[in-house]
């Protein structure tokens, strides 16, 4: 087992509000880890701490270590831009760049980091769209606006966009919460496929989804990590009573 | 039954009041436009567009030099004012939480409220006194008038770009400044261009700051340290002159100026309607 993330004493605040309390967690390479918990428990904040997006919010603060590939991403010598390059993110609401074509949406990350060669860009766009299971649906209309796609297609476009810059990790913040069941199924299938080559951390408020897609599950409650382990164990034999009550729908 | 009738009468009465208010607001506008079009149109011929200001007593002549001068002046003013306005607008929108930006926003509001003649005197002191009455000084004064307008519209346009677009780009590992200069700016470009055009329309009609910094000039452009002719100033100088020929040209200048501003404004509005949401 290779540890991708070693999270040590992670704390996060919004102003004076303490939203993550002393999280310690190790995340394995090429697995799917689901973060579940009731609304407002800090799931999204936790995810945003892993690629240094949290600090973009005015008044936000972080302490502790997030060791990624052996390096603490909060070390002063680390450039957050490089962190985000390695650790991609997919958001809750599909957010393709509305004024760009499908092609440009996928290529923009590479273009803005200096890739000019058309054949390299073409290959990257094709590869990423194929990985995101979207190529067959859009290959004849790459010049069309990204906003013209359906919600589920837009979300897969966002996944392709994140994959195009060749990250090692994909953080997904409730990627299906704005989608219909069929689109959700497609994304979940995609998550399992991508887990062969990528480490995936997915935030979900949907307990069934955590059970369906993940290898490991973490349960967060009011900013504390209540339980973390192999998904099967967490669901079949939860160690904490709160976890049991949450997954059986007693609260949430 | 009576109550119904009373309501009906009240509604009718108020509606008439509103129409009356509308008409009284439109009367001055249309009478000005009508007068300028009727009187101006008769002066416009080929000479009007290709000949410079006639000397006193000369027959005919045109305002070609003033059209050239006005374009040069607003072009120069835009070169100075637009980049500064754009950059301050970007700063205010993208770094709006800082105390500095609150101060800058306040100062822009103050600047926006300063009468243009005062800005003219400011430019006179700063530029005209050192290099003389010149197109540079006039353009500087007009640029100062443009800056708060461009800044405000840029800020408002950028604020319409949803945060999720910025976050998506930042999460791709693109540096913040690049995200702002490419993705955010291009999402808002139509609204920003509209703001710039409206600010140009505004300065094209300014006469007071031009009078103070550059003065009246009858000839063609002959260097950045010398004055140029100006349509707005033509209206002022020609109309007050005792020469019939010049008075006629004043009407023509007024018409051309109004048409120029009308075209810029209509083009800007059209752009704005087409690009109303931040998307392309």
Contiguous low-pLDDT stretches of chain B (5 residues minimum) are 276-280
CATH superfamily of the largest domain in chain B: MetI-like
Q: How many helical elements of chain A?
A: 10
Q: What structural class do helix, strand and pairing data of chain A support?
A: alpha/beta
According to CATH, the fold-level topology of the domain at 3-95 and 170-247 in chain A is: Rossmann fold
Give the strand order of the largest sheet of chain A, numbering strands 1, 2, ... along the chain.
Answer: 6-7-8-3-9-10
CATH class of the domain at 3-95 and 170-247 in chain A: Alpha Beta
CATH homologous superfamily label of the domain at 3-95 and 170-247 in chain A: P-loop containing nucleotide triphosphate hydrolases
Low-confidence runs of chain A (pLDDT<50, min 5 residues)? Answer: none
CATH architecture of the largest domain in chain B: Orthogonal Bundle
Order of H and E elements of chain A = EEEHEEHEHHHHEHEHEEHH
Q: In one word, what is the shape of chain B?
A: globular
Major β-sheet of chain B, in short?
Answer: none
Proper CATH architecture of the domain at 3-95 and 170-247 in chain A: 3-Layer(aba) Sandwich
Instruction: Return the average pLDDT of chain B rounded to an integer.
Output: 89
| Gyration radius from CA atoms of chain B, angstroms | 23 Å
């Amino acid at each position: 087992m290779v540890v991708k993330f070693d999270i040590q004493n992670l704390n996060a605040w919004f102003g004076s509000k303490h939203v993550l309390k002393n999280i310690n967690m190790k995340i394995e390479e090429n697995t799917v880890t689901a973060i579940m918990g009731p609304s407002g428990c800090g799931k999204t904040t936790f995810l945003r701490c892993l690629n240094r997006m949290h600090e973009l919010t005015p008044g936000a603060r972080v302490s502790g270590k997030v060791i990624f590939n052996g390096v603490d991403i909060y070390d002063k010598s680390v450039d957050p831009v490089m962190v985000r390059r390695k650790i991609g993110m997919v958001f809750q609401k599909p957010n393709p760049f509305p004024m760009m074509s499908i092609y440009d949406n996928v290529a923009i990350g590479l273009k803005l980091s200096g890739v000019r060669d058309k054949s390299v860009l073409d290959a990257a766009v094709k590869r990423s769209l194929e990985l995101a299971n979207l190529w067959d649906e859009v290959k004849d209309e790459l010049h069309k606006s990204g906003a013209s796609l359906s919600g589920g297609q837009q979300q897969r476009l966002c996944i392709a966009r994140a994959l195009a810059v060749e990250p090692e990790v994909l953080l997904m913040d409730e990627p299906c919460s704005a989608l219909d069941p069929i689109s959700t199924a497609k994304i979940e299938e995609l998550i399992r496929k991508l887990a062969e080559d990528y480490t995936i951390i997915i935030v979900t408020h949907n307990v069934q989804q955590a059970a369906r897609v993940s290898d490991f599950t973490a349960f967060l409650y009011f900013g504390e990590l209540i339980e973390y382990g192999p998904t099967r164990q967490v669901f079949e034999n939860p160690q904490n009573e709160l976890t049991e009550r949450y997954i059986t729908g007693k609260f949430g | 039954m009576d109550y119904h009738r009373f309501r009906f009468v009240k509604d009718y009465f108020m509606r008439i009041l509103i129409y009356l208010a509308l008409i009284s607001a439109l009367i001055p506008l249309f009478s000005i436009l009508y007068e300028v079009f009727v009187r101006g149109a008769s002066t416009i011929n080929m000479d009007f567009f290709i000949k410079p200001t006639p000397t006193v007593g000369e027959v005919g002549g045109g305002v070609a030099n003033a059209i050239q001068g006005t374009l040069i002046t607003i072009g120069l003013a835009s070169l100075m004012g637009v980049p500064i306005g754009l950059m301050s607008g970007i700063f205010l929108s993208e770094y709006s939480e800082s105390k500095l930006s609150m101060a800058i926003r306040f100062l822009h509001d103050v600047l926006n409220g300063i009468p243009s003649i005062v800005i003219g005197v400011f430019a006179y002191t700063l530029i005209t006194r050192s290099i003389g009455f010149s197109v540079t000084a006039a353009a500087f004064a007009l640029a100062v008038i443009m800056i708060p307008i461009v800044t405000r519209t840029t800020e408002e346009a950028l604020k319409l770009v949803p945060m999720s677009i910025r976050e998506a780009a930042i999460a791709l590992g693109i540096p913040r400044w690049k995200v702002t200069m490419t993705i955010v700016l291009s999402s808002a470009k139509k609204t920003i261009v509209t703001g710039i055009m409206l600010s140009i329309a505004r300065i094209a009609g300014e006469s007071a700051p031009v009078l103070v910094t550059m003065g009246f000039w009858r000839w063609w452009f002959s260097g950045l340290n010398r004055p140029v002719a100006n349509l707005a100033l033509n209206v002022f100088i020609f109309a007050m002159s005792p020469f019939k020929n010049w008075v006629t040209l004043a009407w023509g200048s007024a018409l051309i100026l109004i048409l120029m501003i009308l075209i810029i404004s209509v083009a800007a509005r059209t752009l704005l309607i087409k690009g109303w949401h931040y998307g392309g």
